[in-house]
């Protein structure tokens, strides 16, 4: 999808590059050449894996990069804010935490969702998660695991969680396009 004259995935990847991560990798389903081409044109590494097992894609991407900390951002969130990503990532970077998000409970707009977790937690999920839901959505097993130390970053501003900037439907895309045009008129 196009957003402000750019492929939406390019917008998301550009924002990820501004969040303070050491590396950005796009984990895509096997043979998704269109998304891969956008990432490669930006100098971003691409990792492939099964379409219906996103958890495996994340494990493989983490292993390929030798990452100790992994951040999960989805391509349907083009308004994701680098400062929000940096805040969540920073919690895990400081240590003592296996998982941090801003959705447990949600206090930011839907579409500003982000999660960071240790490689150890990801590998554990990769070995232990067995349900289709857990393997498709990457972190539910981590979120439910009582052994793992988890923290949530909150917005501190009431009412933000009621706003949706995630693009799941054509109507969502139109709302995000209007917000994009409001924020970036030129």
Keywords:
single chain; 186 residues; alpha/beta; Spore Coat Polysaccharide Biosynthesis Protein SpsA, Chain A; 4-stranded mixed beta sheet; two-stranded antiparallel ribbon; 8 helices; 42% helix
Order of helices and strands: EEHEHEHEHEEHHHEH
Instruction: Note the gap between the termini.
Output: 19 Å
Q: What is the CATH class name?
A: Alpha Beta
Cα-atom Rg, whole angstroms? Answer: 16 Å
User: How many distinct helices?
Assistant: 8
Task: Outline the structure in words.
With 186 residues, the chain is α/β, with parallel strands linked by helices. It has a single domain, classed as Alpha-Beta Complex (Spore Coat Polysaccharide Biosynthesis Protein SpsA, Chain A). It contains eight helices and eight strands, in the order ββαβαβαβαββαααβα. It has helices spanning 8-17, 33-41, 54-65, 82-93, 119-128, 132-137, 140-144, 170-183; strands spanning 2-3, 6-7, 25-29, 45-49, 69-72, 99-101, 115-118, 150-152. The strands form three sheets. A four-stranded mixed sheet has the order 5-7-6-8. Strands 1-2 form a two-stranded antiparallel ribbon. It has a two-stranded parallel ribbon with strand order 3-4. The radius of gyration is 16 Å and the shape is globular. The two termini are 19 Å apart.
